[in-house]
Amino acid sequence: MPPFQKFTGKARDAIKKAHELAIERGQNHVNPIHLLAALLVQEESSTISIIDKMEVDSLMLTDYILEIMETPDSATISSPSYQIYLTPELVRIFDDASKIADSFSDEFVSTEHLFLSILDVSSEARDMLNRFRVTKEGVEKIVRELRAGKIKDIDQPKKNRAIEKYTRNLTDLARIDKLDPVIGRDK
Q1: Which residues, in sequence order, are CB contacts of 81 under 8 Å at separation 6+?
Q2: Which residues contact 51 (CB under 8 A, 6 or more apart)?
Q3: Which string of b and e fits 81-116 if b means at least 16 CB within 10 Å?
Q4: What is the pLDDT along the chain (187 residues), one digit of tens a residue?
Q5: Which H or E element spans position 127?
Q6: What sign for the dihedral angle of Cα 115, 35, 160, 9?
């Protein structure tokens, strides 16, 4: 397993959050689903931005993943909760993420590498992403476009994108005289 010093702060935070998610649910193992959930709920998540660029409903995906973690089947405890271990699939994801970072000529493993690795290693998390039509090829294409500078609004906070998507700028509309007249008011 690669040393976690080669992981970015965001990647380490995601791993820590995955560990916390397992503990909160009384589970004695951290698996790829916990890591995927941690990547999805992370503040200013690049994973959410990538999923949004793929035109997948990120809120529905996040809710689905969190719901899956709550199912009774996933809460099997075979040892006390103070003995938390990483599943073999998660260890493979960490190893694969290092290789992916090397293939991008990156010195550090970031959340994008972890996300790509989840899509590369066979696990229940990958199967869930495939159900939402999130593929490694699609994510890799978006990451490469992002790095090439072809996608510029991925760093824009999600709040602002939601405001632009669901509202109209009345000031701009008034400037170009596109507002309906107000009836029943004095000048």
Answers
A1: 23, 26, 27, 28
A2: 40, 58, 61, 134
A3: eeeeebbebbebbbebbbebbeebebeebbbbbbbb
A4: 556 788 999 999 999 999 999 888 888 889 999 999 999 998 888 888 888 888 888 888 888 998 888 765 544 444 444 678 889 999 999 999 999 989 988 889 999 999 999 999 999 999 999 999 999 899 989 988 888 876 655 445 555 656 766 788 888 888 888 887 777 777 6
A5: helix 124-131
A6: negative
